[in-house]
Design goal:
This protein has about 100 residues and is mainly alpha-helical. The protein contains 5 helices and no strands.
């Protein structure tokens, strides 16, 4: 699936993702397509929820929805090297087993 084909996100999830992206390195964000970022922004505009990032906590310690974590890991996976991709796949597999 291409990133530009992602259209089935709800407004709140889009806003949550954008909230997290605002705290990530620009190098990571620059790898995301403008189409995706525009779509997230358009969807997030209709969200009524507020999301917050605690700067003193690591990303994995944040209070994020599982859906948001999944999308962020997918974005990261897309731009990772082979070794990192294997780690991500193993993490996804472990998480699926626990559920």
């Amino acid at each position: 699936m291409k990133m530009k084909e992602i259209i089935d996100l709800d407004n709140d999830l889009a806003k949550e993702i954008l909230t997290v992206l605002a705290y990530l390195d620009n190098t990571f964000i620059n790898n995301l397509s403008n189409t995706l970022l525009v779509k997230l922004t358009d969807l997030a505009a209709d969200s009524t929820k507020n999301f917050y990032i605690q700067k003193n906590k690591k990303l994995d310690e944040q209070n994020l929805s599982e859906e948001c974590k999944n999308w962020l890991s997918l974005f990261y996976y897309k731009f990772s090297n082979s070794s990192e991709k294997n780690e991500i796949i193993n993490s996804w597999f472990k998480n699926d087993i626990r559920e």
